[in-house]
Amino acid sequence: MPRRRKRSRFRSGFGSSVGLVFQIPWLRYSVAAGLLFSLSWMVPRWWCARDGHRWYRGDHALIAAHARTVVAGITSESPPSRSGSAPDRAESELRFDTYHWSAVALLQLCLAHPELRAQWLPAVEQAIELMCAEPLREFDTARWGEDALTTLESGERGHAHFLGGLNLVLSLHRRVDPQSRFAPLNDRISFALARRLVTSRHGMIESSRGVAYPVDNASVLVSLLLHQRVAGASHATAVGPLLARFRQAWRDSHSGLLHHALNPDDGQPIGVARASASARAAFLLSFAEREVARDLYQTTRDRCADAFIGFGYVKEYYVRAGGHRADMLPTPDDQAVVLGLSPSALGFGLGAARRFNDSRHFFQLYRTAHLAGLPIRRADKRAFVAGGALANAVLLAALTAAPESP
Amino acid sequence: MITRFLRLASAPPRFRFILTVAAIALGLHLAGLYVLALTGGLDLFLASGTSIGILCLATVFYGLRLFVFVVLPSWLAVSLWLRATRPPHAHLD
Fold first, then answer.
1. Interatomic CA distance for residues A397 and A261, integer angstroms
2. Is B84 on the interface with A (CB under 8 A)?
3. pLDDT in tens, A164-177
4. What is the ipTM of this complex?
5. Is some CB atom of chain A closer than 8 A to the CB atom of B62?
């Protein structure tokens, strides 16, 4: 029995002479190839940037939905206790970083939207209490053999990661709430950090014994700059030289990227300069300083960032012509790098691009963040599935980084 | 038999087949996304010491996501185009 031919609806529009033209094989397949390439280029580019436009113009609904996820990450955690359920060192450091970035993001939102302070400030204060809780300080206490908060006045060195991160949040909190109940602690930490900076041999505070990270010193610097503004104190002898080091001494002479780690005994870099360190320092510094932060951001973008069909990425290392990747030995505290690309530099670069109004770079990086970060909406919340609570906190801070410095 | 297999393999896929593949890929992608969100499967997949199972899971899922975002829309559009401009004597599915 002869097979019955069905009439295609799609052919009806091409029944004319125009339709006959498109039935010429080479033209038909050329258009098909054109469609294939142009749609492969346009559709993912458009789809993955849709939310980017909303973030860029500060869509309240989107920000509130993501902030609810970050707030839930703080309020669902009870303060860690000394009992058997205390987190191990790696976990306590991860939780410390998560609370730190959650608080930074929410405080930034409180400054941008003062009418929503009552909604977000209690979660920030809970995050600060959790950061100060003794079991969560364990990772830093174990590193130094002494507690950072009880040795503020007597200690001579170290604790840059813990004290810098905590003090940045405290200074920002004081900016939002001038009557902050954490002001005395903010003062004590600020003066202790300034004293340690001034008395250190090479003008840096160590994060752990034998290693100083410029990014942790960036937190220290920003916290002191903000403390000067909110408390009227003067840390000029500490912040001036430290800022100068971010301009030149701690940058790679060839690429201009920031060194990842430094030896506090001789002030020399450990390993090579990295995009993740530069992007993170640029974003952190942008909270209180513009010139060096912008320079670091532009250097990272120009040296390490690129894009493929509109999807931006940041290479962790700058390989100059004739250079070799094998020269770049990873340091013990290696950042996650995927096929030579840095998710960390992408996240912080997104924040710096937003801060400095670089919309082209922002959208390029956002497309990749959307594709790889897996945003999802559940009930009244919105979150990125990949990376967990820390990634959500960092991305909220990055995506809501207003061009005006906090 | 070999000739028949080659003829079948080289024939352009039917539009219904493409739609079925698209629906399955989209469904798998959405289901995977919600399962990963509920279980936190990708929370720490970039941290050092992540198990090979999690890495394989992440690779498969991102492969599917790339297929859904990059390949699928253009594949559907090209199939529609080829179907719409098919010569009158061609086989219709």
1. 24
2. yes
3. 999 999 999 999 99
4. 0.78
5. yes
